[in-house]
Write a structure and sequence with these properties.
Layout: E1 12-16, E2 24-30, E3 33-39, E4 45-49, E5 63-65, E6 68-70, E7 77-78, E8 103-109, E9 112-116
Antiparallel strand pairs: 1-9, 2-3, 3-4, 4-8, 5-6, 6-7, 8-9
The protein binds FE2/S2 (inorganic) cluster.
FE2/S2 (inorganic) cluster (FES) binds next to loops.
Length: 119
């Protein structure tokens, strides 16, 4: 007999959906990992390491602007894929290799937010 695979079986609970209003970010510690859970203006939840790839500031203290998470220290902006978003006016910056925040696959189900916390 085969057991049914639970969608959340390989996922880790992060927070309740109701604790993550639209365009908000929240620091969460799960299994000693410091994470930021945030929700964009389209309603999608995201779970990332709470560490800016620039100089390590906690992203949860930043703000959400639409579908972008903004680091509080120097204003770097990251899209929903975790990629540093380059202001169009800064041409020289656009020639850099891409920089990413550490992201995790995130699933929201039954009023709860889960993430696949890979190493
Ligand atoms: S530490 Fe995040 S922008 Fe500098």
């Amino acid at each position: 007999m085969h057991a049914m695979t639970d969608l959340t079986s390989h996922l880790t609970y992060v927070c309740d959906s109701r604790d993550l209003p639209s365009e908000s970010a929240k620091a969460v510690v799960v299994d000693a990992r410091e994470l930021v859970a945030w929700r964009d203006s389209a309603g999608d939840a995201h779970v990332w390491d709470d560490r800016c790839p620039h100089q390590g500031s906690d992203l949860a203290s930043g703000g959400v602007e639409g579908c972008v998470l903004v680091c509080p220290s120097h204003g770097w902006r990251f899209d929903i894929n975790g990629q540093f978003v380059v202001p169009l006016r800064v041409f020289s910056e656009s020639r850099r290799p891409p920089v990413f925040a550490r992201t995790y696959e995130t699933v929201e189900q039954d009023g709860r937010v889960f993430a696949r916390l890979t190493d």
